[in-house]
Amino acid sequence: MGKLEDILSHAIGTVPFYIKNKEYILNNGGGLHSYPIINRNDICGKENEFLSSRFPVNSLTHQTTSGSTGIPVKCFKSHSDATRSGRLLWKCRNWFGKVYPNDKYAIFFLRRFNTDRTINSSPCFVNGNQLNLSVLDLSPERLELYCEALEAFNPNWIFGPPSALYYLAKHIEKRKWSINIPNLKFIEVTGEYSDTEQRKYISSVFKCAVTNMYGSKEIWVIAYSCPNGHLHIVEDNVIVEFLSTENSGRNEVVITGLNNYAMPIIRYRIGDTGKFVDHHCLFPGRIIELSGGRIGQYFLYNNKTLSTSNFYMAVYDLHRKYPGTIAQFQFRQIGNADFEFMYIPGVNFQTGSLNYLEELLYNTFGNMLNITFTCTDFIPYSSSGKLSYFVDARNQQ
Ligand SMILES: [Zn+2]
Fold first, then answer.
1. How remote is the CA of residue 347 from the centroid of ligand 1, in Å?
2. Partners of 103 in the beta sheet?
3. Which partner for 76 in 211, 263, 289, 333 could form a disulfide, CB atoms 3.0-4.6 Å apart?
4. 296 C-alpha to center of ligand 1: Å?
5. Partners of 265 in the beta sheet?
6. How far is the CA of 277 from the centre of ligand 1 (A)?
């Protein structure tokens, strides 16, 4: 049996959501195209429906994914799922020189917890073979601290969002292009849309290859850039379909994980758009091109360069205390310290949750911040066809 057939029959045999839809699926032929297309919202809060009964839940590990709704979705993996997907990702990394999971690397993060589950407030620290750098504040003093930490730690590779690496590269340019990381083999950018020019620039500053990993917490690697700069699908890990949506005129990426047995991901709309392209290339996997998508954003506040993820994290924390209070949201910067929070109330909306959100924002930004709340039933999409949780609206007044 092929990998795909194996995962499909595993899903209709052991996963509650697919057992429920079994008749519909079999009536439509039982192949991949008879499975319903699912969104993040179908899984959110209903993760148990998507877990295979073959694995005891306490034997699984999980990661939490974000997305534009600010409502976390848990993605579960068994040890063998993680091993199989991980091995495929390392194979791609080795296209750029030998690297191993135990090698030293630097990583950018949104949040780290201490062993007692409290939030680690340190912006830069070493944990085993990992140098952790916070992405939330990229002011010049912070970037200087990161340069010094990278030189002292001397990692074999760096992993992070292209926007943060771009800011770091700009800072190094101001240091007269000087950064000394002799062991550095490559930089892997991920998590956001990155264009070729941006990667070329980062590559010229760090004097090493910059690779592009397109992946998701649900299935890990979807595609990886080859040394010729194409984005190749990792076909042993995922089936990629492009679904044309009539109203947007864009082709949405729909993925099916081939190594997710604990939590099968079948025909899952990941929220990106793109297409297949033809290039002659000796590296394995069909080649895709993505159009736009997640873009990392920074804004100036109180003379600091801060990541818009600070807002996202506040809503994430809000949902930990008030699950389901907000369905959709958008922060709009309307003045230097003035912001508007537009929101669509969720099924469990509670008025008190807005006060709590205000408190969380003051904790992050200080009480110079001026926030107004606007309840709405529609938040417009950006030109890239995505709901963006932060918009600079200062020129729209
Ligand atoms: Zn290629």
1. 46
2. none
3. 263
4. 26
5. none
6. 11
Q: Which tens digit of pLDDT belongs to each residue from 346-385?
A: 878 998 999 999 999 999 888 889 999 999 888 776 555 5
Please work out, in degrees rounded to the nearest 5, the angle formed at the alpha carbon of residue 162 by the alpha carbons of 156 and 38. 110
Q: Which residue has the tokens 């590990």?
A: 61
CA of 82 to the centre of ligand 1 (A): 26
**DSSP conformational letter for 221:** E
Cα–Cα distance measured from residue 275 to residue 250, given in angstroms and rounded to the nearest whole number? 9
Classify residue 351 by its DSSP letter: T
Using DSSP bridges, classify how beta strands 326-333 and 390-392 pair: parallel, antiparallel or unpaired: parallel
183 CA → ligand 1 middle, Å: 25
Nearest C-alpha neighbor of 32 from the set 310, 307, 276, 265 = 265
Q: How far apart are CA 112 and CA 115, in angstroms?
A: 10
Distance 230 CA to ligand 1 centre (A): 4
Taking the model in full, what pTM does it have? 0.81
Q: Measuring CA to CA, how many Å separate 156 from each of 130, 183, 213, 286?
A: 10, 5, 17, 29
